[in-house]
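Entry type: protein chain
Record version: 2
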Amino acid sequence: MRAALYDRHGPASEVLRVEDIPTPEPGPGAVRVKIEYSGVNPTDWKAREGITPRPMNGFQIPHHDGAGAIDMVGEGVDPSRIGQRVWTYLAASGRRWGTAAEWTIIPAERAVPLPDGVSAELGASLGVPAMTAHRCLFADEPIESKTILVAGGAGAVGHFAIELAKFYGARVIATVSNAEKAELAREAGADLVVSYLEPSAADEIRSSGQVDRVIEVALGANLQLDLAVIKPGGVIVAYAADARDPVLPVRACMNANVVLRFVLLYGVPTDALREAGKDITVALASGALTELPVHKFSLDKVAGAHDAVKNGVVGKVLVTPA
């Protein structure tokens, strides 16, 4: 099979290459998925550059997310799953078989059935962003009738956080930096969209009531705003790391009686991941989740796909292995 891979850390153009390698077969508890689209996330280029290094077993095929169909199952997996359309998550976590290839091998529970009528493009866009959004929303108390502030409402995590929150009964405020991103947040269903660059941002948010939970992409940059709008006992959930660690204003956090939670998908308990997959699939089947603008790259242009994500392209980057 053709696969993108690297065996050392470094810039995309220097270490990523496409090769023909033996097509793998699934072991016990695993399935093989013929990949139609592979989704690229910031975690992929950070791992490849060595910013968040992980052990490599000879080589690493990148990307956790994808969509395709199961064409082979390992021992202990129901053979009726052969032919099933699926979306994947954490394909490359602790394994060399990421989705930037014609086939991937993945634990069966990380290949989630894709409902009829849902596009492969949307399926490949889920994975890390949607699972992260779900954990941020549901790690604490139920969100029904709560007010959720989603920072970075036009990003992939922000997009699915808005849609999942709305589907499960919350009111959503989103912050963005420009008009293009504001439109994306509104299309996702945000009830109120605010520019965090405006001095009046906190007043605009407070005018519609206090916030129960913040889904935060940039804790260092936005903590002052978050503390200004969150209710006592509210939760600020950070899922991304800034280039510089923020200085924590302890007294201000105490005054707000706020709870800080940090989410990294690799450490989320298996049961929570399983529940996230179920909830996301229910939302998918109901038509509640939608695609962001898609930027497609061929497998031969995988380095460009990584660079696009690193440079902050608006929308979702997908790679077509075939």
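Comment: Residues 2-126+289-320 form a domain with the Quinone Oxidoreductase; Chain A, domain 1 fold (CATH 3.90.180.10).
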